[in-house]
Amino acid sequence: MCGVFAISSADINNAGEKVIEGLKKLEYRGYDSWGVATSHEMKKEVGKISCATVVFKEDSKAIGHSRWATHGGVTSENSHPHTYKTVTLVHNGIFENYLSAKNRLLQKGEKFLSDTDSEVIAHLIQEQLDLSHTPETAIQNVSQSITGRFSIVVMIEGVEEIFVARRGSPLIIGRGKGELSKTTFIASDIPAFLEYTNVVNYIDDDEMAIISNESVQFYNLLSGEEIEKRNIEVSWKEEVADKGDYNHFMIKEIFDQKQSLMSAINHTEEEIQEFISVLQSGNGVYMVACGTAHKACIAAEYYFSQIAGRKINVVPASEMPAFERFINNKTVLFAVSQSGETADILEVLEFGKKRGAKVISITNVESSSIARISQNHLPLRAGKEKAVASTKATTSQMALLLLLAYADNNRLNEGRLVLQSLASSVNDLLNPRYEEYIKSVAETLHDCRNIFIIGRNSLFPMALESAIKIMEVSYIHAQGFAAGEMKHGPIALIEKGTPCIVLGCDSETISNAMELKSRGAKIIGVSNKNNILFDQWLKIPSAGTAISIASLLPIQILSYYLATLRGLNPDMPRNLAKSVTVK
Ligand code: M6R
User: Does residue 332 belong to any structural domain of this protein?
Assistant: First the structure.
């Protein structure tokens, strides 16, 4: 999490303002507070950087940060950059062993202005400088003493260069061109500088760079040896994040599913077969993902079981350490992620690689860290997803996973037909009348305290995903269950009028819905057919094996309206960030 952006230039003198503009494009990484330091000034504020209009004195160098709080509350003191004597830095990641370092420095009589782990890094670098080490050695020594994932960007008073180092958290250098040939950009993600350049150097783990107006030099952070880096031209166009006529990105992205499902399944037969052959080459496949992507993987567990007869092990990435003993050179680790930067997943993949496991992935962000460390990767091509709540990337993940399950059973064409038919029905379904109707259902629910969702088979993970969607944007407590599980405990929570969303209308699910209705529940059915039990009905198209994907659409719209009717901004829910780059 956290967006980092910095500029070093001999071409421009408004680096401060430019860093603010770039950080606005990284706001999805964290929006609790922000800060920018130039060589002469520091500005920090609590709140979203998108609301900031700040003027700096002329300067050709600036570093900035948009924060998602980990250590220390959301205050201006805890916002980055952090300064200690001559050192000013921004940090993304977690300095796990910071407390012991901080205690040692406190005993030396040093004072801290914030509660962050990041400020301690500034003190440690200064300590090394005071021992007469060069800035590069100081940063090398400090980096070696830190455990955890991090990326840092450091300015030192009286020193022209900017220093950066990375282990785990993303950091990319943008090489200015044309009129900006003496300008270098440093960012945690490419969009921050894409309007100026598409020529990049990826800083990999345990690497550092020294950036001056004339050059960028790369070094191994551990050995200090210089490294040659290729300039890479990324094919990204700057996707203008434009809401068009929509009020929020979330609803725009829900409607983008009219096209995104088709893009997800448009890979060539060769690309799909190549991917599947790696998946088939393993002796045990572990799918790792987090949050919503993890629920898409559980759906895939059903697809692969029922279509391809293959057992896939699905584990939330953060829980994978418990299963590490099963990872070896015969294992296939299959990562699924929108951002491709999720720290919990990256950690599993890095561990797996060390054990010789094969790593394959599907991500939406094509140049992401997960995509780059994978031996085989398929992009989702859903287009930029800006709202924190994942919608179109989720259904693209599920569509591609369903297609892969068909391909695993040599029925790729059949899979394509199922998904093309789904894409065409989704195109018809997503229209203003449908949206209005779901809004009217949301009007009856938006002040309830709890919502339960049930589903069977591949609709069970959709019940879990529906709960995430409702909770994260509307802050209404929602919980998903396997339909048959309600009677084993949760049914005790049902009272007169408790809203229960029932995904599917097969006879067994309807029996479970009946058990809820008999105890007073209000039943909102999501299915292709109406049922006498339903108090309200959210219609979906008949979609065969793709029913799980179809079922999500009305839930996404419902979640959106539950949020907006409660006066909330669904694009940036409290306490969340789009890209979760800390463990
Ligand atoms: O970028 P990723 O797909 O790896 O992100 C995983 C989760 O953080 C993400 O799905 C999260 O649960 C979303 N807020 C859900 O809408």
Answer: yes
Q: Domain range for residue 535?
A: 431-583
Q: Which residues are part of the catalytic machinery?
A: 2, 578
CB atoms within 10 A of CB 134: 11
Measured by CA distance, the residue closest to atom 11 of ligand 1 is 291
- Whether 389 is in the pocket of ligand 1, judged by its Cβ within 6 Å, is yes
Q: Which two tokens stand for residue 248?
A: 């929020």
Please give the structure tokens belonging to residue 320.
Answer: 């994978």
Of 414, 430, 446, which residue constitutes the final position of a domain? 430
The model's pLDDT over 88-120, given as tens digits with 9 standing for 90+, comes to 999 998 899 999 999 999 999 999 999 999 999
Q: Could you write out the three-class secondary structure of 169-235?
A: CCCEEEECCHHHCCEEEEECCHHHCCCCCCEEEECCCCEEEEECCCCEEEEECCCCCEECCCCEECC
Beta strands in 197-331 (DSSP E): 199-202, 207-211, 216-220, 226-227, 232-233, 285-289, 313-316
Q: Is the separation of the CB atoms in 247 and 182 below 8 Å?
A: no
Question: 46 CA to middle of ligand 1, Å?
Answer: 24
Share of the chain above pLDDT 70, in %: 99
Q: For 224-282, how does the pLDDT look when each residue is reduced to its tens digit (9 = 90+)? A: 999 999 999 887 665 555 688 899 999 999 999 999 999 999 999 999 999 999 999 99
Q: Report the candidate in 474, 478, 475 with the shortest Cα–Cα distance to residue 463.
A: 478
pTM score, whole prediction = 0.86
Candidate of 292, 380, 388 to mutate for ligand 1, largest count of ligand atoms within 8 Å of Cβ: 292
Q: Are 329 and 450 within one domain?
A: no
**Residue 580 Cβ contacting ligand 1 at under 6 Å:** yes
